[in-house]
Design brief:
5 helices, 34% strand, 26 strands, Neuraminidase, 2 domains, four-stranded antiparallel sheet, alpha+beta
Length: 414
């Protein structure tokens, strides 16, 4: 017996209608498989069809349908097929190819939100909870402000008509050293974190800037433009007895290592006298004397400036300025064409770039939790940002913190 409604006549008519719809609905259809199509239209294809079992009938029917579709598409030369092929390769009229530029995952955070003027020179308290910085948000000359790292409000420490820049917390977090020109030339000053008792530490005729505290908080290293040498000099002054100071060499923007077991000072120094090519150096303080000057970072493409130590004293962060920004040259454009932030181990190994050159990033400083804070104009105006330098290991559950690198040098920070 046959199941009602599945006779050879019905199967022939239905399959013919389905195939006709499929064929004529294909854009740009041509009767390329004319013999097969003609036989289907004439019903000759189903002669002997009912002699096989029902399952085989359906399989043969569907096979024929897909065969027809494949035959119809195989020889098409119409604009429709060409547009499909072109779209697959992304070649659209009026579109220009853009190269893909991958950027690493990052933990970038913004910490200040100045909309006029700009925020500069950040420094972190030893507990990592507070930021002190200079800002132009309320006056044409920079003043000092203090705020919590993740806070929304800031407290103004100075409101002098002069300029106050480059603030830095004392190790105990109770004072801030900074540079000010309130008496006509730049000097080093100290003020309480509540804005009280501003005290002048240096009072010479030269310009003294960029103070940095010793780990015990008793001394400050700074740089001074020598009246005789006409170069930037490094000096160490006793905070309690400012008359007691000592010259330790030539350099700019010194930074005292916060680890008392690593008695080093990092600074930048011009590679040639009078040039704007800078590299990063360290010097050891042994019995108050500067010894073993060592260059740890240099480059032929950019100047390396503004070094800052990690909390363990085993790494240095610094910023770079490309050659093209301060020197006219006919040489090809350098690989890095902006101001960026980098880190390097104390022994000069494991150099890592933290920022990209699509914006200017400068004045880096390290927090106790391993984050690097810096200034950037990535949103059009200078503000304070931070990033956690991580080396991603996709086989590990958590990223590896670069501040915990195995040390390659013989110095161990216990």
């Amino acid at each position: 017996m046959r199941k009602k409604g599945l006779g050879p006549e019905l199967l022939g008519r239905e399959s013919q209608r389905v195939c006709e719809k499929l064929i004529v609905s294909l854009p740009g259809w041509r009767p390329t498989c004319a013999g097969v199509n003609r036989r289907i239209r004439q019903g000759q294809f189903y002669q002997g069809f009912m002699q096989v079992n029902r399952t085989a009938k359906y399989l043969v029917l569907w096979f024929c349908m897909f065969f027809l579709i494949g035959c119809t598409h195989s020889n098409q030369q119409t604009p429709y097929n060409e547009s499909v092929r072109t779209n697959l390769y992304g070649e659209l009229d009026g579109w220009q190819p853009v190269s893909f530029s991958a950027k690493p995952f990052s933990s970038l955070e913004q910490h200040s939100f100045c909309e006029e003027g700009g925020d500069y020179d950040p420094d972190l308290s030893t507990d990592g909870k507070w930021i002190v910085y200079s800002s132009l948000q309320h006056s044409p000359n920079p003043d000092l402000y203090i705020k919590q790292v993740h806070g929304a409000t800031s407290t103004r420490l100075t409101s002098d008509a002069a300029s106050e820049i480059q603030p830095v917390f004392s190790p105990n977090g109770e004072q801030v050293a900074y540079a000010s020109n309130r008496v006509g030339n730049w000097d080093v000053w100290v003020i309480g974190v509540d804005g009280s008792n501003p005290t002048r530490i240096t009072d010479g005729a030269s310009n003294d800037i960029h103070p940095s505290w010793s780990p015990d908080g008793k001394q400050i290293v700074y740089c001074s433009l020598g009246s005789r040498s006409k170069q930037w000099e490094l000096w160490v002054v006793n905070v309690e007895n400012p008359g007691n100071k000592k010259w330790i060499g030539y350099g700019l923007f010194p930074e005292w290592n916060p680890n008392p077991k690593i008695p080093k000072i990092a600074f930048q120094q011009s590679r040639y006298r009078g040039s704007q090519w800078f590299s990063i150096w360290t010097v050891d303080l042994v019995g108050g004397e500067a010894k073993f000057p060592t260059e740890i970072v240099s480059s032929t493409q950019h100047a390396c400036i503004c070094p800052s130590w990690s909390a363990d004293g085993m790494h240095v962060t610094y910023s770079t300025v490309s050659r093209g920004q301060f020197e006219k040259t006919d040489d090809p454009a350098p690989e890095y064409n902006g101001e960026d932030i980098w880190i390097v181990d104390l022994d000069g190994r494991n150099i890592l770039r933290l920022t990209s050159s699509d914006s200017s990033s400068f004045s880096p400083t390290w927090s106790s939790d391993g984050r690097v804070f810096f200034c950037s104009d990535r949103k059009g105006i200078e503000n304070i940002w931070s990033i956690l330098p991580n080396q991603i290991n996709f086989n590990a559950q958590k990223p590896i913190d670069l501040s915990q690198h195995p040390q390659n040098s013989g110095i161990q920070a216990n």
